[in-house]
Design a protein that fits this description.
CATH topology of the largest domain: TIM Barrel
Helix content: 10-25%
Radius of gyration: 24 Å
Mean pLDDT: 95
Largest sheet: 8 strands, parallel
Strand order of the largest sheet: 9-8-7-6-5-2-1-10
Bound molecules: alpha-D-galactopyranose
Number of domains: 3
CATH superfamily of the largest domain: Aldolase class I
Shape: globular
């Protein structure tokens, strides 16, 4: 919650320098759901908290012990007070939360935006009816944060989604979460983390109210599930930042996947800056899982002070190279993942030019925690099926980025809850003609349905040629505006067979710039990418 204030202050700072900001990092901890579902109780939660400390997980950053669904005991009819399950938590939640805090850990709780929880509907937890926040927002938040002293809340949506509650209540997520956010603010606590659980990227409004938000349906303990969630998050990097994160769901490492799959799962959650909530039984943690979860070099990618999610720098359609700045924005240090989601070994070629790095590049293999030599230009490596290779790169030179793909841009009206075509909101779709195989589409027609590259960096500033590559069968037009200045109109001829490229001259200031493409009245051509080069 605190980030809102930070974000406002930092917006001004960002125009002066681009340095690491004092932002909150992705939440690290444990959650009860993946292993125990609603079968939880007080001694189980406390023994997990003990294990977190005993195994040194606390020392590497795991702090939050989150009680998910299953603790509810109905509601007092006379007072409306939320009751706690009489046999699972016979002494209530207070001693459990106090115990977690006594270990120097933080305590997380769970609720629902509607009247009942998901466990009530899907797991037949009959007692969990009328226990959601609907109509009890302030009363429950006061109990969670003032009385019990919890530090985190995940707010689910089954009770507010017509399909997953018995009365078939149906509410607009943005409205419900705004009320819930305000109730947290009214408690006077400014350090509470709100996690929104609406099972798809909810919309750009979400970073005003939440610290993190789920982007997918529930994770399962199998490779397909992990692979699908990574695929869903590949083009969401523009929506993470300033201490707000895409939540790829709780971890399934240490359960039934292979060691390679566990490494890929954890490694990708780290570089993609997802919250890291362990989901297995920590009291019986396997040695190899312990080794993975305490690999501080990989955790450092997740907890990096810049708080960035890696984006796709290149792909051959089957495998991906993801990259992000670490330690210093637009500096010489970057982290990369070579990700092979396929069932066969794949050779992945990395071109330093795609990573905006020049000269000799020192590489460190983060999974194996060892130096991996120096490369210049390109190199190739075979990556195991379902595997990932993670490196920290330190280059002689940082180059200015030349290629900005449409699929890495921020779409101001982006959301995944409703059909974007029906709602008229910009989205990303595969298109084999496009570089990267994906384009931004369905843009324009109304104000706010625009595309922005918010992180266009120019070291010295100056005049550039920006070439916009588009797809349009008829004549099309859009406006380009840099840093909010009056725009220039770009006209595109129709092209039934491929890409139309239109150059325009723009002026960038030194440091970070925002380039916006929009058309408030008509449908915009689809955007493949834009490229930048200094004007001669
Ligand atoms: C939903 C959420 C899960 C979990 C359960 C609890 O399915 O997505 O993560 O919290 O509800 O019932």
């Amino acid at each position: 919650m605190r980030m809102k204030c930070f974000a406002a202050a930092m917006m001004c700072a960002a125009t002066l320098t681009v340095t690491a900001r004092d932002i909150e990092r992705p939440t690290m901890g444990w959650s009860s759901w993946n292993t125990y579902y609603i079968d939880i109780n007080d001694s189980l939660i406390m023994s997990q908290a003990d294990a977190m400390v005993r195994l040194g997980l606390k020392d590497v950053g795991f702090k939050y012990v989150n009680i998910d669904d299953g603790y509810f005991g109905g509601r007092d009819e006379a007072t409306g007070r939320l009751l706690i399950h009489p046999t699972r938590f016979p002494k209530g939640l207070k001693p459990v939360v106090a115990y977690i805090h006594s270990l120097g850990l933080k305590s997380g709780i769970y609720s629902d935006a509607g009247a009942n929880t998901c466990g009530n509907y899907w797991n037949d937890d009959t007692i969990a009816q009328n226990v959601g926040l609907l109509g009890h927002e302030q009363q429950d938040m006061d109990m969670f944060f003032k009385e019990l002293g919890c530090d985190f809340i995940k707010v689910d949506f089954c009770g507010a989604d017509g399909y997953s509650n018995h009365p078939h209540y149906s509410f607009e997520p943005q409205d419900r979460y705004a009320v819930i956010h305000n109730a947290i603010v009214n408690t006077g606590r400014d350090d509470v983390r709100l996690n929104i659980c609406r099972w798809n990227y909810p919309g750009t409004w979400v970073s005003d109210v939440a610290t993190s938000w789920r982007i997918s349906e529930d994770i399962r303990d199998n490779w397909n599930s992990v692979k699908n969630i990574i695929a869903q998050s590949l083009y969401l990097s523009a929506y993470a930042g300033d201490g707000h994160y895409n939540d790829m769901d709780m971890l399934e490492v240490g359960r039934s996947m292979t060691p390679t799959e566990d490494e890929t799962h954890f490694g990708m959650w780290c570089i993609m800056a997802s919250p890291l909530l362990i989901g297995c039984d920590m009291t019986t943690l396997k040695p190899e899982t312990h080794k993975l979860l305490t690999n501080t070099e990989i955790i450092a990618l997740n907890q990096d002070p810049l708080g960035l999610q890696a984006y796709v720098a290149s792909t051959d359609g089957k495998t991906y190279v993801l990259v992000k700045d670490i330690e210093e924005a637009y500096g010489k240090t970057r982290a990369i993942a070579l990700y092979n989601p396929t069932d066969e070994p794949q050779e992945i070629t990395v071109d330093m030019e795609d990573l905006d790095l020049g000269g000799k590049v020192k590489m460190r293999d983060l999974m194996n925690r060892k130096d991996a030599g120096t490369v210049e230009g390109k190199w190739s490596e075979t990556v195991k099926p379902h595997g990932v290779r993670l490196y920290r790169l330190e280059a002689d030179k940082r180059m200015e980025r030349k290629v900005y793909e449409g699929e890495t841009a921020y779409l101001s009206a982006y959301q995944e809850i409703y059909n974007p075509m029906a709602l008229g909101t910009g989205t990303y779709v595969p298109d084999p003609i496009c570089s990267g195989g994906v384009k931004a589409t369905n843009l324009g027609i109304r104000p706010g349905n625009d595309l922005r590259w918010k992180n266009v960096y120019s070291e010295k500033g100056g005049r550039y040629t920006m070439t916009v590559d588009c797809l349009t069968t008829d004549k099309g037009r859009m406006i380009v505006s840099v840093n909010g200045a009056p725009g220039q109109v770009l006209e595109f001829d129709g092209n039934k067979d491929g890409i139309t490229s239109v150059p325009v001259t723009i002026d960038l200031k030194p440091g970070e710039n925002e380039i916006r493409l929009y058309n408030d009245r008509y449908r915009m051509p689809d955007i493949d990418r834009m490229t930048l080069s200094p004007a001669v």
